[in-house]
Structure formats: structure tokens, C-alpha cells
Amino acid sequence: MKRHALVDLKLKSGDYPHQATVYRILDPLIAQHKQKTKVINPGSGSWMTVVTRDGQLLKADFSNQIIQCDHTKLDICIVDSDDNLLSDRPWLTTIVDTYSSCIVGFRLWIKQPGSTEVALALRHAILPPKGVTIKPRPIRLCGACYAEEPYHRIEWQYKEKIKCDRHQLSLLTKCTNCETPFPIPADWELGECTHCSLPFAKMVKRQKIY
Ligand SMILES: [Zn+2]
Ligand SMILES: [Zn+2]
After folding, report:
1. In this structure, which residues have their CB less than 5 angstroms from ion ligand 1?
2. Least crowded by CB within 10 Å, which of 11, 47, 116, 163?
3. Cα(165) to centroid of ligand 1, in Å?
């Protein structure tokens, strides 16, 4: 920088700013640029981080922690049952889990989606599949799943669900040590039994192979 001022621009000392001054102005701009290039394309492997509208950087550490909603006008036309070509192209609203990039819910519309459509797409993402009912009690747990990623899986509360399909283990309904039923998942802050403090992840030892 000094060379550029003295040699290229032929400036004298005192006619150009000190490099510390230059970097004091440039540093935040460089940092901002770096951050932008890091998360510029959310579709190609950088779904793990999200930049909010106010510039906050969010990082997903596990599934169902951060979900994103997106709308796309599709490159297709629709012909109705009377063979009439509809003038508007359809819109697709997707709900994506940030950590896994999985589409967890979607909805197709003929008009531009608004907040109602977002709510319906979210409903599709959250609610169980058709014909499946949720049983809120008892709260169930697979210790092996919990050891992999510490959160409650909604499938455990499906009425007919008695085993973990991922690990082929029976689901637990109470602590394997003291038999205290599990609290609601919102209270699973420590990931352990509220009575005897046995970690959920360690309960896998007492789960029966199904
Ligand atoms: Zn499991
Ligand atoms: Zn216990």
C-alpha cells in the first residue's frame, strides 16, 4: 500500500492515509463480502446455514431445528378436465428442513401464495400422514435415535408405533432405571430422566430388539 502511494502515485508522506486507517475501513467490508459469498447459493450444500432478512447468521445443528419456506413459479402449464389450458402457471410452496435439506411439506397452487398458503404447507409438513393418528401420551423415546441427534421424533407418538424403524428397537415409555414416565419433549433440556438423571442416550441398553 505504501509502495503504491509512493511509487505508483508519487505521493509524499502525509499525503496518503496510514495503512491501519485503510484497513479499519476495509475490514468490515471484507468480512461482509466473505460472509455473502459463503452463503450465496442456498441450493447447493449450504442449507446448513441461513441468513435472516436482518443479516443474522443461523446455523442448524440438527433436524427440525430450522425450517425454510420457499415459493417457485413452476415451468409447467396445467390443462383442466375440460381440456382448457389454464392461463396461469402453478406455484409450488416447499417447506425444507435446513439441516437435512429434506422437503418435509409442500403445496401446489394456481395463484401466487400468501400467508394462508404458507400456513397450509406448514400444516402438511407438521401433521402425520393421512390415516395416522397421534397419541400424545405416553411420551415415547428411542435412546439410539436420541444418542444420534438429541430431539424427540414426532413419529414416536403415532398411535400404532411401538418400535423404532431405524434401529429395530422397541420404543420406551418410561425411564429404564426408575420407571418415571418421560416429560413432554419441551422439557427435555438436559436429555435425561427428571427423577434419576439417567441420560436418555444411555437407555438404549435396555431397549429390546424388535
Ligand atoms: Zn431409533
Ligand atoms: Zn429415571
Report:
1. 142, 144-145, 164, 166-167
2. 116
3. 7
Cis ω on the peptide bond leading into residue 138 (within 30° of 0)? yes
- Whether this model's pTM surpasses 0.90: no
Q: Of the bound ligands, which one is closest to the alpha carbon of residue 181?
A: 2
Per DSSP, what are the bridge partners of residue 95?
A: 69, 105
Query: Which grid cell sits at 18?
Result: 496510514
**Taking a C-beta distance cutoff of 8 angstroms, is the pair 163, 210 a contact?**
yes
d(CA 88, CA 111): 7
Phi, psi of 205 (to 5 degrees): -60, -30
Q: Give the Å distance between the CA of 204 and the centre of ligand 2.
A: 13
What separation in Å is there between the alpha carbon of 195 and the centre of ligand 2?
5
* Ligand nearest to C-alpha 147: 1
Q: For 86-111, what is each residue's pLDDT tens digit?
A: 888 999 999 999 888 899 999 999 88
188 CA distance to ligand 2 centroid (A)? 13
pLDDT in tens, 111-153: 899 999 999 999 999 888 889 999 999 999 999 999 998 989 9
